[in-house]
């Protein structure tokens, strides 16, 4: 399959591996003993996936997510794309709509205080994951860390993303080489504004409790 390889190797303001030396340094450290591109991808993917999931802004730089050590789907995907591109592996952003996970929704819906505003997000969400070129485009989703996944399973949920399809059963994907403008537009449409920090802090506390549940034997 012929495609413009360089298009999926570029840096941008948010995918900032060109100005943040630490993004590339981390990628190189993770892949120092790796041979194939597939193995390099796997080591970087596993690192990003295991960063804890938490609600955050949509328009964070890759270097910010790496520095903080956690993020939501957009931040973790952006970091994954930046790290892969920094070592010459083409990657792109994949965006689509999903339904909220019922088990997770029910657990977080029991939270008190401002965390109850989670209900305002509705049952449909924007989701961002990644496609990496390894001889063909391969979908990969670094959003949820393993402890969170185990917690969801213990609540009786499933790990399958419930993608929203149209009346003909077709899922509509938006695939981007650069997602900066989309991320800024999405940030401008954020649901919570004046008390966003407080709301997310309480919801993320719920995610930490979910992780603890997932880590229990």
Largest beta sheet: strand ordering? 3-2-1-4
CATH hierarchy, class: Alpha Beta
Largest sheet: 4 strands, antiparallel
| Residues in helix, % | 40-55%
User: On the 0-100 scale, what is the average pLDDT?
Assistant: 90
- State the assembly state of the protein chains: single chain
The chain-level structural class is alpha+beta
> Which series of helices and strands comes N to C?
HHHHEHEEHEHH
Count of spatially separate domains: 1
Strand content: 5-15%
Residue windows where pLDDT falls under 50 for at least 5 positions: none
CATH topology annotation: C8orf32 fold
Distance between the termini: 46 Å
Radius of gyration: 17 Å
Describe this structure in words.
The chain is of the alpha+beta class. The chain has one domain (5-215): C8orf32 fold, CATH 3.10.620. It contains 8 helices and 4 strands, in the order H-H-H-H-E-H-E-E-H-E-H-H. It has helices at residues 21-30, 37-49, 62-68, 73-86, 102-108, 146-154, 180-188, 196-215, and strands at residues 91-99, 124-133, 137-140, 174-176. The protein has a 4-stranded antiparallel beta sheet with strand order 3-2-1-4, covered by helices on one side. A hairpin with a 3-residue loop joins strand 2 (124-133) and strand 3. The radius of gyration is 17 Å and the shape is globular. The protein starts with 20 loop residues before the first helix and ends with a helix. The model has no long low-confidence stretch (mean pLDDT 90).
